[in-house]
Design a protein that fits this description.
The complex is a heterodimer. Chain A is of the alpha/beta class. In chain A, 34% of the residues lie in helices and 21% in strands. Chain A has a single domain, classed as 3-Layer(aba) Sandwich (Rossmann fold). Chain A is globular and about 40 Å long. By secondary structure, chain B is of the alpha+beta class. The chains are: A alpha/beta, B alpha+beta. Chains A and B meet through helix 2 and helix 3 of A and helix 4, helix 5 and helix 6 of B.
């Protein structure tokens, strides 16, 4: 990969809608780290779009954060994203895997991409998380801080 | 046996709908409907809110065309503070226009490159695995890349003015919130960070050559597919030329006879009524004078190119001349020509953005005007998909008491139903079986209008596509569902 003008900063993209209760999880999570400007570039999305495929090529590491309908044991799931074509998608709503696939195919770039999916339970019009989502959010943040410490250590020793 | 085929939702349109095609016992199409079934009612939701919240709230109708709603609402709110469009400061007027052209440019680019081009590149009856952006990316990498970069350019124009690509705050009552600075302007002009505005113009011309080439090879399809007579509605300036931000409303019938003679947007209520049908939440606007049966109009790129005397930028006007030459300057009533017209508008928007970016007034700090408050405001613009109306009434405290939205897709409601009916009659009727390719042609007919169904019903949330087959007794005998 060529030298990137974004340096070693990580791109964090929060996906969701803060007007729809737990759908705010993605935005709230990235906002939690917005003061770490040397480490992260932060973006907010209602939904991923095709131009995000170009955006992620400017980074070595990208983290998508979204609320999830699924139930995970710890209230969240953090996993490495692999590129994938999704036939059923519409172009006004892409999955992280699809965005990565387009970045690979169109721009020959393969950033390291992770997905943080945090469980929510309510998606109706409402400002603020449910108690369940708030608890899951805190667990996800706590886990991510640990992951980040390890990553920062890995960077500093490379 | 009578059958009913339902396509629900329609993929690759913004938002989703449902199509039902009713067959009789011989497999012949008896009737067809394009249903819009979701409804949440933004018009009611906004009542009781202070008027100054409207431009920010209503843009949440849509994640694809929020700028259009923002600007239409802003024009209406300007009037509530006593500022008519001609009273805006030159800087505010030009910044709004620049943002508007950026919005139409990116929206049209998204539609053409990622929604419509799979149909054109691989055929309207191509297998489902071909009808998506992946196939475009694999077989036409340069086209896919340019599509992304053109959309990015328009999005970044919006971001530079509004602070955000989606749901930013640009317009305020009587003007604009911020100006552009030299650095922001240079970003779009110097080509150091992104392909510049001149490149956007070149690529817009290239893509018009693509559709011309497609037209040469597929003229019969373009001429005949979902072709039907209709009225056409849009906005023109004082010279009768294409105008997308502020002008007068003009409508013509399928033969080009004027049915709405360049009237003030403030008077729209004198000329339009909205019909309702029990099978759709989307309303059916029509011209009072002409009546419900024949007074409906298409809106959007094809209508705008049909109604205008000229396009006020030279390259787009040259392309309009080439476009109208194919019909001998008669009104074009063929649905698939919408794609070509949309590309002409992409070029027009690029030219307008170039001119505005070179205008020093967009960096002026003279941004807001004041006037004598009123109790009613009407804002009409030409959104990417067509004529968009926002109309508000407020009480003495400035709280909204009534809101009426007529969105572009609502105007196209009747046209989309006609397009579906054409496909049902010409492609599906009496064929015995319903193939995936046939069903896609129904979607192709709808997609040409680039409908935004979430806007049209002011829905919030997911609106999925389903295909049902129902016999003459009303029994469901087959069903297909596509994810949104």
């Amino acid at each position: 990969m060529n030298e990137l003008k974004t340096g070693s900063r990580i791109l964090m993209i929060g996906i969701g809608n803060n007007g729809r209760s737990d759908d705010a999880l993605g935005w709230k999570f990235v906002d939690e780290f917005s003061n770490l400007e040397d480490l992260f570039d932060i973006e907010h999305r209602y939904q991923l779009q095709i131009e995000d495929a170009l955006l992620i090529t400017e980074y070595k590491k990208v983290i998508f954060v979204d609320a999830s309908h699924k139930e995970y044991e710890n209230g969240f799931s953090f996993y490495k994203c692999t590129p994938a074509r999704t036939e059923a998608f519409t172009t006004h709503k892409l999955e992280p895997e699809t965005v990565l696939w387009l970045a690979n195919d169109l721009f020959n770039q393969s950033p390291e991409v992770y997905v943080m999916a945090i469980c929510g339970v309510n998606w109706e019009l409402h400002q603020g998380l449910t108690d369940t989502a708030q608890k899951n959010f805190e667990s996800a943040v706590s886990f991510f801080m640990g992951w980040l410490n390890k990553e920062t250590f890995r960077f500093s020793t490379q | 046996m009578k059958k009913k085929i339902t396509i629900d939702p329609v993929t690759r349109v913004e938002g989703h709908g449902r199509v039902t095609i009713h067959l009789d016992e011989y497999g012949k199409v008896e009737d067809s409907f394009f249903h819009i079934v979701e409804f949440r009612g933004f018009e009611r939701f906004i009542q009781g809110h202070p008027y100054w919240e409207a431009p920010v709230l209503v843009q949440r109708l849509c994640g694809i065309c929020p700028v259009s709603h923002h600007l239409a609402a802003a024009k209406a709110i300007d009037q509530l503070v006593g500022v008519d469009p001609e009273d805006l400061s030159p800087a505010a007027f030009k910044l709004r226009k620049l943002m508007h052209y950026g919005q139409i440019f990116q929206s049209h680019a998204l539609h053409f490159f990622y929604l419509a081009s799979p149909d054109l590149l691989f055929g309207v009856d191509a297998p489902v695995e071909k009808r998506n952006v992946f196939a475009v990316a694999i077989e036409n990498k340069e086209l896919a890349k340019k599509g992304i970069l053109m959309r990015k350019f328009g999005q970044e124009i919006i971001q530079a003015i509004a602070g955000k690509k989606i749901h930013g705050v640009a317009a305020v009552p009587g003007g604009m919130h911020k100006t552009m600075d030299q650095k922001e302007r240079d970003y779009f002009l110097n080509g150091k960070d992104i392909p510049n505005i001149n490149t956007m113009i070149e690529w817009s011309q290239e893509i018009i050559e693509f559709i011309k080439s497609y037209h040469e090879k597929n003229r019969n399809l373009m001429d005949t597919f979902a072709a039907f007579p209709s009225g056409h509605l849009g906005m023109v300036d004082d010279l009768g030329n294409m105008e997308l931000y502020h002008g007068k409303l003009r409508a013509i019938d399928s033969e080009g006879i004027i049915t709405l003679p360049d009237v003030s947007t403030d008077d729209y209520q004198k000329y339009f009524l909205e019909g309702v049908e029990r099978w759709s939440y989307m309303k059916f606007p029509y011209l009072k004078e002409v009546g419900r049966e024949k007074g409906w109009n298409r809106v959007g790129p094809l209508a705008r190119v049909n109604i205008c005397n000229a396009i006020p930028t030279p390259l787009a006007e040259k392309e309009r001349q080439a476009f109208i030459a194919f019909t001998g300057k008669k009104v074009n009533n063929s649905t698939l020509y919408s794609h070509w017209a949309r590309l002409i508008e992409i070029l027009h928007c690029a030219e307008m953005m170039r001119d505005l970016l070179h205008d020093d007034e967009i960096m002026s700090s003279d941004l807001v005007r004041e006037g004598k408050p009123r109790l009613e405001g009407i804002g009409i613009i030409e959104a990417p998909r067509g004529t968009l109306t926002h109309h508000y009434q407020v009480d003495e405290k400035g709280m909204i008491t009534r809101c009426n939205l007529i969105v572009s897709t609502t105007h196209n409601n009747e046209a989309m139903n006609h397009a579906v009916r054409w496909v049902a009659n010409n492609v599906i009727s009496q064929k015995g079986t319903i193939t995936d390719g046939m069903l896609n042609q129904v979607e192709v007919a709808i997609r040409a209008y680039d409908p935004c169904l979430s806007c049209a019903t002011q829905a919030l949330g997911q609106m999925p596509l389903r295909v049902e087959l129902i016999n003459h007794k009303g029994e469901l005998i087959d069903e297909r569902i596509k994810n949104g």
